[in-house]
């Protein structure tokens, strides 16, 4: 079968671009020229064919070796890199309204033909028509950032997010800069989950996700593999299941789980909101919450004592609650005389205006015993 002329092929590319079907456009370019074709906008990537997976080197320009520029195509750059085997790619970009869009052809040892350059240059110009990917990217980021701040989206566009799913917040607590690799991680997330997951890099330490799945544990394992989470590098907070229109609640729960987990358990990496116990109903460590104000008032009074004494009082309170308000068991656990325990507890009752004969004050004492050590650690009162 005779290959269609380049003019006819360009006309077909134009129709595909006008239809906004970027994947079909990449497929047509692959069938005509071979190689692997990539279209990128911000952190979003469309790749055809999808295999093999793009090399990590693709996302690090400092690894690239620049080739000579052809006089007829000043907007096209040719690069190569060494990584086990040699790869070459030609790259064209176009800036529209301050937004840079890239189109690339990647192949092995073969040299690029003049037709490759012509079609790449033309296809990049056609990217003006393909509005869906950048528009979706911008809309997804805006909605997820707003939801993370606790603001319910006014509207969620049809087809942009899964109908329902789990909110996930990844928080980097190490200094390895894992989430700085936004381009590479975004590509791998897109490649692994397709339309079942939407993501937003809030900054270089926070990654927000909304994912549809019937097995959230499997998703956490996949994410650990994609992102390369080490023992102490990152933590993951996971919400219950919500509709996309309730994303503020989903990401709020995930954020709360990650923040509480970061304070309470340095040995774990994954925290489900459903497993937080009393922390599910306490807005801690949210700044300005009633719980924070109570802790601040209690800590200020405790700070009137020398460090050794306030540590003894704090430890006694925690042990007293753990032993169900039993003086003798607390004394045995702390290797102290029971009268010493009675004195310390009485001191704290007077200090905080509590009466542990009252059920309400016992409940407050129990909650404070869980939160006060975290509060003192977080705020530097120690």
UniProtKB/TrEMBL annotation:
Name the InterPro entries for this protein. CdaR-like_regulators (IPR051448), PucR_C-HTH_dom (IPR025736), PucR_C-HTH_sf (IPR042070)
The residues that cross the membrane are none
Please name one Pfam family that this protein belongs to.
HTH_30
**Record domain PucR C-terminal helix-turn-helix: where:** 314-367
Name of the molecule in the record = Carbohydrate diacid transcriptional activator CdaR
Origin species: Hungatella hathewayi
């Amino acid at each position: 079968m005779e290959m269609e002329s380049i003019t006819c092929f360009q006309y077909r590319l134009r129709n595909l671009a006008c239809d906004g079907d970027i994947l079909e456009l990449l497929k047509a370019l692959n069938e005509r020229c071979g190689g692997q074709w990539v279209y990128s906008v911000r952190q979003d990537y469309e790749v055809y064919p999808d295999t093999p997976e793009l090399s990590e080197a693709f996302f690090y320009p400092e690894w690239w070796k620049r080739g000579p520029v052809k006089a007829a195509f000043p907007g096209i750059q040719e690069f190569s890199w060494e990584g086990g085997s040699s790869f070459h790619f030609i790259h064209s970009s176009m800036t529209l309204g301050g937004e840079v869009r890239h189109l690339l052809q990647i192949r092995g040892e073969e040299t690029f033909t003049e037709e490759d350059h012509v079609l790449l240059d033309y296809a990049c110009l056609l990217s003006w028509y393909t509005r869906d990917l950048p528009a979706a990217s911008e809309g997804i980021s805006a909605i997820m950032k707003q939801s993370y701040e606790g603001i319910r989206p006014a509207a969620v566009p049809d087809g942009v997010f899964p109908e329902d799913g789990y909110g996930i917040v990844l928080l980097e607590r190490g200094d390895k800069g894992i989430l700085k690799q936004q381009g590479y991680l975004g590509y791998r997330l897109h490649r692994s989950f397709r339309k079942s997951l939407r993501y937003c890099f809030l900054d270089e330490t926070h990654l927000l996700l909304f994912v549809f799945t019937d097995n959230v544990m499997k998703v956490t394992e996949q994410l650990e593999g994609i992102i390369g989470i080490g023992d102490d590098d990152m933590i993951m907070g996971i919400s219950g299941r919500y509709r996309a229109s309730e994303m503020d609640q989903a990401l709020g729960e995930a954020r709360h789980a990650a923040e509480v987990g970061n304070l309470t358990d340095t040995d774990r990496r994954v925290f489900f909101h459903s497993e937080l116990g009393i922390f599910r109903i306490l807005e801690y460590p949210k700044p300005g919450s009633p719980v924070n104000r109570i802790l601040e008032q209690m800590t200020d009074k405790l700070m009137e004592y020398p460090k050794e004494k306030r540590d003894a009082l704090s430890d006694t309170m925690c042990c007293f609650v753990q032993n169900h308000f039993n003086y003798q068991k607390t004394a045995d656990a702390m290797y102290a005389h029971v009268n010493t325990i009675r004195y310390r507890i009485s001191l704290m009752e007077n200090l905080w205006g509590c009466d542990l004969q009252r059920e309400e004050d016992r409940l407050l004492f129990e909650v404070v015993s869980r939160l006060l050590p975290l509060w003192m650690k977080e705020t530097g009162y120690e």
